[in-house]
TrEMBL record:
Limits of the Heterokaryon incompatibility domain: 22-119
PANTHER family, sorted: HET DOMAIN-CONTAINING PROTEIN
InterPro entries for the chain: DUF8212 (IPR058525), HET (IPR010730)
Protein name: HET-domain-containing protein
Pfam families assigned to the protein according to its UniProt record, in alphabetical order: DUF8212 (PF26640), HET (PF06985)
Domain DUF8212 residue range list: 230-251
Species this protein is from: Lentinus brumalis
Amino acid sequence: MWLLNTSTAELRFFHSPSSVRYAILSHVWRDHEQSFQDLQTLRAQFFSPDGSPRARASSKIRECCLYAERAGYKWVWIDTCCIDKTSSAELSEAINSMYAWYAHADICYAFLDDVRDKENPCAHRSSFRRSRWWTRGWTLQELIAPKTVVFLSKSWHFVGTKHSLAHVVEDISGVDRAVLVHERSLDDVSVARRMSWASRRHTTREEDRAYSLMGIFGVNMPTIYGEGPHAFIRLQQETLKVIPDQSIFAW
């Protein structure tokens, strides 16, 4: 996996996530996210005064690096720029490994760029409860897999943690509190229940509706963009091989 050095935003490849201590980012993609190639170009051109790409990286990448660095982390993973998406093999490996990468991360920063600063996240009409982050398909595994999740507002201010806000997060996401705080294993949760957590979430690509759930069901399969709804059929077939629960066909 590729990781960003938090002090320079330079990319380095590591063969195993277990060999390094790193933070990881969960967020909603917006227009004009910087890619793997963009950061490599910044590094090659030495645009910034200190000779590293961090000063010229996007505000999201720069602020994430700074936040992680202040917390003592040398490395951080961000999906927009830590995957070489021009390589179909690397993209497929990353998608199949993503749940494990989030699970192995020392901490996950959930950046909610539509959440206001200095508000009570538990309030009934809070921007925290209404954040778009809760509607995205990929953020389900990013919520469940890491042991520690820190929620951050649009200005990178601390909102709370998955543990401290567990009752609110359960209410918003539908995911059982015991699963959120890792008191109960996913293996003890029925397929139908796990599917219900994803039922109100959306993905930009139709195939990602299935690919984003592979880690939730503990399966691996090739990613084939262009296969459309067949991806979900393959997900059901692969899930049945490891979890003989016919309730999956209700979805």
